[in-house]
Amino acid sequence: MDTEELVDGVRRGELRLHELEAHADPDVAATARRHLLVEDTAADLDAVGAYTFDAADAEPNIENMLGAAQVPMGVVGPIRIDGGAVDGERFLPMATTEGALVASVNRGCAAIRAADGATARVLQNAMTRAPVFRVADVGEAGEVAGWVRDNVDALAEAAESTTSHGELREVTPYVVGDSVFLRFAYDTADAMGMNMATIATEAACDVVAAETPADLVALSGNLCSDKKPAAVNSVEGRGRTVAADVEIPRETVETYFDTTPAAIVEANTRKNLVGSAKAGSLGFNAHAANTVAAAFLATGQDVAQVVEGANAITTADVRDEDLYASLTLASLEVGTVGGGTTLPTQAEALDVVGVRGSGDPAGSNADALAEVIATAALGGELSLLGALASDNLAGAHAELGR
């Protein structure tokens, strides 16, 4: 069917919007949806329809496709990193609509480069899924929790039978009255791994239900915790737990930030630590979510998981008149295979970083991406703290016309 036939079919009630791909090429289906919306809303969708990839390539990522949202993309770097998975300089594409963000992060990365680079390490890799079960009482709850602790190997066998890449690391029971939560944690190699963890956990839940009095209520019981602010992720981690730090000579701090190490340390303590504590924040940082979100958009990550990515703590100290600074992200959920990473512009952005696809060894590409994002986010922290300490934040935005 052509565009006009599809539009007429929807108008007559013979077709639904989500059925168009069954009757036409995906690009034709997208065009038909735009025509319907233009007619019904008087919107101009020329820009939305000016995408460069084949709509068929996006079918795993979107439903009712009508076009694409185009976000400006910039780049920061080169970022010099001594990492567990990165050794040398990398660039990081960032997609954002926030003026001055890329410039700010780039300034921080330049200061890090001038200080001979940052150190970065992935400290843990554990994607989680936490189903919730119903039991009769706390007696049964204790029985189920004990059985799970004694039978992790059996649960691992069931979970890992569903994937050739995922490895069950641990299962932690949590009891609340007649509810039993089991927090499964997986090594998912180079995949972000949320779907992998869900499918694997479903197989393990069948074993729990068969061997214990527990009845599965929901495959996700929110103790995972996915896309919601949660202390459990700040403490236990989710996805990649990654840290980056740097020591910057006093002269370099003065050159790049027009302030002193002591002033940056005070700004960090009063703003990021004391201010965040007073606010009851889970993130003790200046704006790590900015870099995380822009990197996620550019490289095809699940953007909603910036909620967990903002679980970050920035520290700063004066060491022999120089500045020491670190950023630790407890739950950075990234992957270099699957999901949005397969889309053309996102795949190209991963090529810029040098981490597209599966790494050798498995997991090394996703580790490298996490280390690059963490170091860039550290640069963003330094730049914003420097702007605040030198009282030029508003002036910088005004100068850049933002």
Total strand segments: 10
CATH superfamily of the largest domain: 3-hydroxy-3-methylglutaryl-coenzyme A Reductase, Chain A, domain 2
Number of helices: 14
Task: List the uncertain runs.
Answer: none
Helix/strand-derived class?
Answer: alpha+beta
Provide the gyration radius in Å: 24 Å
The portion of residues assigned to helices is: 40-55%
Task: Determine the strand fraction and express it as a percent band.
Answer: 15-25%
Order of helices and strands: HHEEHEEHHEEHEHEHHHHEEHHH
Number of domains: 3
Instruction: Specify the overall morphology.
Output: globular
| Most strands sheet | 10 strands, mixed
Overall pLDDT level: 95
CATH architecture of the largest domain: Alpha-Beta Complex
Spatial gap, N to C terminus: 47 Å
> Which CATH class of the largest domain is shown?
Alpha Beta
CATH fold group of the largest domain: 3-hydroxy-3-methylglutaryl-coenzyme A Reductase, Chain A, domain 2
